[in-house]
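[job 4471] stage=fold_predict status=RUNNING
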Amino acid sequence: MNKTRKLLFRVGAVLLLVLIAGLMFIVGRGHTVYLDNKTLEYEGQTYSALYKIEILKNGEKVAKLNKRERGMATNIGQTCKLTLVITKEKKGAEETQEIELKLPYSMDGIIINLPGYLSGLPEDAYLTEFVSTAETETAPEEEINTDEFGFSSDMDAPPEG
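[job 4471] inference complete, writing structure tokens
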């Protein structure tokens, strides 16, 4: 009886840990969300960048984007709620819009094209994964002369002595 009770407590503890891990995966998953104010071409249509967009998250300003600019916000969880203060043209009236984005589990860096999103395009048009294109600089390889036994010959080295 004592052994079965001990086994039940162990199985219960493991199940509780698995449940907590699953909840943390869903609730605590962090994303970097890049927000673009760039012209988008989709299926032959052009969706022009807006004059200016101010982006607020939880009342705090995270980015101010003019045409052809990108801003960034970090988000914990699978839903990103933002407030956009949009100015469509120079000296135009500002309009405020609340948006709620569902973020995919499989992406860490997500790019949202705001003109495409605000135009009501499907997700595959305005949402892409951010892929870093950092270039690595490689030094030119130095040629080493070796003899038939694999020893390098230092012909340019000064004689010892």
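[job 4471] summary: Strands lie at 30-37, 40-42, 45-47, 52-57, 60-66, 69-76, 79-87, 94-102, 109-113, 127-129.
[job 4471] exit 0
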